[in-house]
Structures are given as structure tokens and as C-alpha cells.
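Open question from group meeting: does this chain pack into something compact, or does most of it stay loose? Before anyone orders reagents, we agreed to write out a predicted structure and look at it together. Recording both the input and the output here so the notebook holds the full record.
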Amino acid sequence: MSTLSPTAKKAVAEELNILLASSYVLMLKTHGYHWNVKGPHFHALHQLFQEQYEDLFEAIDEFAERIKALGHKAPATFSEYKGLSVITEDDSEEKDMGMVKNLLKDHQKMGDTLRKMTAHVQGEGDEATADMMIARTQVHDKFAWMLESHLTG
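C-alpha cells returned:
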């Protein structure tokens, strides 16, 4: 059983709500880019975007399950996600490298957000959630590196 206080559990769940919502919006954006990418880098980007949205889908489930383990309701509507997310939607007609630039900024933002939240969660004494956040930070840093490589190649 967790030794976290009810106040700490609530604070951690609120951070996780933001991560869940942000991951969902980023997954949706990445999936849309996967469907709509065009240009000379189509094949490579189509595959990269698929790898990323599939990873995000799994992360969303992990965040929701951790929120539930802390005794709170996981957000599950688009309106909640839009209100909580640090990532914005994109319905523009971006070209392939525009998509890459947008996703690069989003993964960098997710990494920065996770680093700040990890420190807060550790301060609350929740090392299990901190470990999850550290692992997700590494994933977003890797995805940012992969995307940036398409811009500097």
C-alpha cells in the first residue's frame, strides 16, 4: 500500500492528468501527421510518426492506470484534454518538414514539462511516479533527437 498522504496523491494525480492530456493531444497530432504527410520524405516520416503515436498510446494508458492507482479519476474527454494539455492541436496543411518542426517543439516541451513535474513528484515522495516520468522524459528526448535529425541531415 502507498504511504503517500491524500494531499500528495491528489497533487501527483493532477500532474499526471496534464501528462495524460498532453500525451493524448500529441498522439492525435502525430497520428494526423502520419495520415497526411506528403513529400520526398513520405516513407521515412510515415513510419517514424507511426512509431511515435503507437508509443504515446501506450504511455496514455500507463498514466491513466497510475492516476487510478492513486485513487483518482483519469480524465477521458476531449474537452478535458484540451483544457489540461500543454500541447496544442494542429489542423493546418503543414508540409513534411513543417510537421517535423512542430513535433520536435512538442517533444521538447513534453521533456521540459516532465523534468519539472518529476522534481515536484519526488518532493511529494512518490518515487514510483517519478520513475515513470523519468522513463517518459528519455522517450521524448529520443523522439526529439530523431525528429531534429531530419532537419539537420
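Observations to bring back to the group:
Residues 6-36 form the longest helix (31 residues).
Residues 6-152 form a domain with the Ferritin fold (CATH 1.20.1260.10).
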